[in-house]
Amino acid sequence: MLLLILSMYYLHFTLNDNEENYLQLAKAFYEPDWIVNSFVLTESAGTRLLYQYIIGFFLNLFSFELVVFIFRGLFIIAFSLVLHKIYKSLKINNIIVFAHLFLIYLDNQSYFAGSRIFISVEAKTFAYLFVFLALNFIIQKKYNLTVLFLIVATYFHILVGFYAFGYMAISILIIEKWDFRSNYKLILKLFVYVLAILPFVFVLYSNINTNVTANLKPSSDWIYTYFRNPHHTTLINAEFSTQLKGILYSVMAMLFLIYMYRKENNDSKMKVLYLIGIVTYAGTLLLVPLIFIDKNGTFLKFYLFRINAFSTFIFTLTLTNWLYKITKEEYKTIVYAGVAMLGLIQLATVSFRQYKNITYSDTSLNEVCEFIKSKTDKESNILGLANPAAGFDNDLKLSLTRKMERDMFVVYKFVPADLNKIHEWYKRVKIRNDIAKNINLLTDALDDYKIDYVLSKRSFKTEFLKLEFNNNSYFLYKVEKR
User: Fold this and answer.
1) Distances in Å between the alpha carbon of 76 and those of 9, 10, 57, 70?
2) Is residue 300 in a domain?
3) Taking burial as the number of CB atoms within 10 A of a residue's CB, which of 21, 136, 312, 389 is the most buried?
């Protein structure tokens, strides 16, 4: 059943926005000559080192769409096996599993900060797979294996792995009643994690050159958090009211888990699960005040709220299980009928979404990309202009770069994780925004930048732009140098 549910949601060939970003970075990392002198796709692998070697290798053999399909399939199988072990260990029956995943969790995986676990071909998905393996073993109090899988998770994604370890380590210490004297071996086990990730931390730190950006304003931290990722980091943006509701929901979820934990008398696996949910929620919520204090993004850039999707998984599982158990036996038939009816509605919704993914084809995009790929120089740089009303998020299709195999002047979505590069990205985003509003400003940009073509969904009539190609959706102009 788990295979079927996850496949219905995620098994298709269409790349989501994050996959467009990270797969292109992986291919450019593995094949440096793929797009020559790329600004958009050239940066240190950083925390994605393992991911970029693995995905880059497969992209050297197969198309982007096929790699996504293959790895989504592998993730679906792997997560199904791990989740099956967790549900079975907790004695969760199939009706609860169905209601938990299909009806409640998968469409709303976190209540604030936009964190998600399932399923995308990203470094964090590799990491979460091992975090769930760690969860499977911590509820069985097998701490050696818990620590081992958290180490592997950290090497795939340092933030996911580190936060999961921190909260699980606190949970373990509470379970064992903080008895350091009799449990010194336990402390040593936890310390093994620190020793094991030190080489990775050293490699990451050695690639950071803070001197390059130390004196530039605004700071690289502010650009990354407040300008580009407030929805994940600072939470203070146009959707703050929604974020605030999510925070309140998370507080209520934590209180419910505390109630369930205090109600559970025996030392059960469910009690361990409740505790982990409480600790992860509490840790995340205690960090929320930083959004009002850290005006530079110094700490917020580390995605302090990322792990709350994991907390939400635990809460929604606990809630679903509790609702099922408090239902009297004579009403179970009604419950089954209600779940079946809601399941059919959700099935129709998910099926329609999948149908759109499977049948989607942008012929106009493919035509212009093929023209650019076959008719322009490999080192050409393309300035993409969408709707000026979109503001700084003025990207055309994110698949453009990989399909035309030419570098873009800038892509808002593809913000560099390398903070040494982010000021240049920020500058280019602002320049592009100005040009989108007034095409004549392009001539000023040409004094400092190489821009060979302008690709837009709008037509322009200026003496320095020569129309090279157009179809139903796109206009490609060659920039005539003055």
Assistant:
1) 10, 8, 21, 10
2) yes
3) 312
pLDDT of 210 over the 60 cut? no
Q: How far apart are CA 119 and CA 122, in angstroms?
A: 9
Instruction: Check whether residue 97 and residue 173 sit in a common domain.
Output: yes
Cβ atoms within 10 Å, residue 235: 23
Instruction: Indicate the Cα dihedral angle 305, 306, 309, 312, nearest 10°.
Output: -20
- Compute φ and ψ for 271, nearest 5 degrees: -65, -40
- By residue range, what is the domain housing residue 247? 2-208+225-326
pTM summary value: 0.93
Let me know how long the chain is: 482
- φ and ψ at 242, to 5 degrees? -65, -40
- Per-residue tokens: 470: 């157009």
Same domain flag for 382 and 299:
no
332 is a domain residue: no
Amino acid letter for position 422 = I
Beta bridge partners of 246: none
Q: CA angle, 155 as apex, 151 and 161 as ends, to 5°?
A: 60
Are 386 and 433 within one domain? yes
Task: Output the CA angle 134-137-141, nearest 5 degrees.
Answer: 125
DSSP string, 425-441: HHHHHHHHHHHHH-GGG
- Among 10-14, 384-388, 417-421, the range with the most confident prediction by mean pLDDT is 10-14
Both 236 and 287 in a single domain? yes
> Residue 389 corresponds to which amino acid?
A
Do 367 and 262 lie in one domain? The reply is no
Are 339 and 99 spatial neighbours (Cβ–Cβ below 8 Å)?
yes
Dihedral sign (CA 341, 343, 346, 350): negative
Q: How far apart are CA 393 and CA 458, in angstroms?
A: 17
Same domain for 77 and 195, yes or no, is: yes
Strand 453-456 versus strand 475-479 pairing type: antiparallel
Task: Give burial (CB, 10 Å; 0-12/13-18/19+) of 155.
Answer: buried
Q: How many domains, in total, are found in the chain? A: 2
pLDDT in tens, 379-391: 999 999 987 776 6
